[in-house]
Every structure is written in C-alpha cells, then in structure tokens.
Amino acid sequence: MSSSLFTTRSSxxxxxxxxxxxxxxxxxxxxxxxxxxxxxxxxxxxxxxxAGWRFALAGLILLVLAAAMKKTVLxxxxxxxxxxxxxxLTQTTIQYVFFYTGVAHATGAKASITNATxxxxxxxxxxxxxxxxxxxxxxxxxxxxxxxGVMLVNLDRAGPNGLGxxxxxxxxxxxxxxxxxxxxxxxxxxRVSRTLDPMVMTGWQLTIGGVVxxxxxxxxxxxxxxxxxxxxxxxxxxxxLSSAAFAIWSLLLKHNPVGMIAxxxxxxxxxxxxxxxxxxxxxxxxxxxxxxxxxxCAGIWLVTRTPRARPLALSKTG
Length: 318
Known about the structure:
Helix content is 72%, strand content 0%. It contains twelve helices and no strands.
C-alpha cells in the first residue's frame, strides 16, 4: 500500500473514523456475546476464554493475509519475536484482561466514557516521548472539548445515579487501567513498526496475546455454553473487526503523530452508545447525541489542525 493513503488528511480522517466505528461496535457485541454464551459478570475465566478466541482468530486472519501478500511472516529475528511477544502480552493480553472484566462490571455507556481516557494517556505520553508531538494549548483544548462531548452523550441517561460517583475498581477502575495499557502499548507499537511490517506486527501480537488469554481462561475453568450459529457469527465479526481495526490503526500510528491519531478515540464512545441503542433497543433520538457529535468533531479538528505557516516578512530596502 502507498504510504500516502495513511498520510493524506482526508484518508487519515476516514480510516481513523472507520477504526473507531469498528471498536465502538465492540461494546454492544461484547455484551451480546456474554448474553448468548451465558457468561456471568463474575465468571472472569470464561470472559478471558471468549476474548482469547476472538484475538487469536483475528491474529491468524492477519498472518494468513500477510503471507498471501508475500510479506515476511515467519522469518523474523529473535529481537523482533521478543518485540511482538511483549506487544502481544501488553496490548492484547493485559489490556483485555482488564477491559473485558471492566465491561462485565459496568454499563456499556459508562464503559465507553471511561475508555476515552486512553486519549489523554496517549497525548500525555507522546508529549514526553516525541519531540514533534508536544502538548500545546490547542491540543489541550481539543482534548477537553472532546471529553465534554463524550460526557454529554450520557448526560441524560436513565438511572438513579446517572453519571454520579458510581465508580468501582472491577468496573470503571479496570477500564481506566486498560486504557493506560493501551496508550503505552500503542506508543511502543509505533516504535516496533519502524522495522517490522505493521500487518505482520499486528497479526503476531494479536495471535500471541489471544493464545495467552485462551490459556488463562482454560486454566481458570472457563467455559462457553450454547455456542450456536449466532454466537459463531458474532465471534467471527469481532475477530474481523479486531484484525482490520488494529492493522489500520498501526499503520496510521506509524505514519502520523500519536497525539493526532489518539484524538479520534473520542469517536469510539459516540459510536458505542449509538450502536448499543440500535442493537440493544436503547433510545438514541436525544439532543445529547447531536451535541456530543458536534463537540467531539470540534475536539478532533483542534487536535489535528495543522497551523498555517506565516508568510515571511519582506525586508525593507532604502
């Protein structure tokens, strides 16, 4: 693929939005999967088994596709295998141990909101790591506006506590930890992609992380009951969305500043809530959704906007 596809402003916006749409659809998909497979919130082993099958399958899909495209899949150096192994253990295994447990113990709306903290972690970490990705007033304002938009999505949701201080370690707390792990691992993945094809890198990290999650689930006595055609199709969709979204996102991170790409994460909870409404029967025709979309888009524009170069002043001559 031409690198211009991942650097042109319009292409970056379209691809990043597609990734966020796919990841946003994962929230109702995970909830639906837990329901179809009779996985209780307290059954962490079965949650890990479900996640493991999903990511191992997603990784294998990418590796097969990469091999079909004549990319080097197996002939990696020992250092490269160590790198993808570390990336798989962090970005897939550790992150999703916390993420799946958190989603099981929190509502989809609050999980979506809390997950948006990964943007803050990414922008902050990039500020200290990359000289060309410093945090400035415009980026800070964009992040603030984007987060206000994310909060607005659920401002008028039903429930006795609404968006109050209903915070638990196993729920929102674990999602915050997962968001930090994702942000840190994504920056490490950007470094690895400099010497390794992003598709191959993503395929290996998903496969390794998925296999480890599967082993954790089986060792803990995990079991997925009632695995019918609906659950099979759902698992296939989640594997495909993971392989596509992670591969595209890795390419975007390789060719663009982390802070700019991370800003699009604010779209994930917007898509998550809207798609949860469509597929889980929740009401979505609310003024808060339109307001949130406006604020989120404004935040993304501020973070990704390239300042115009000032014209050079002409020196006066006598």
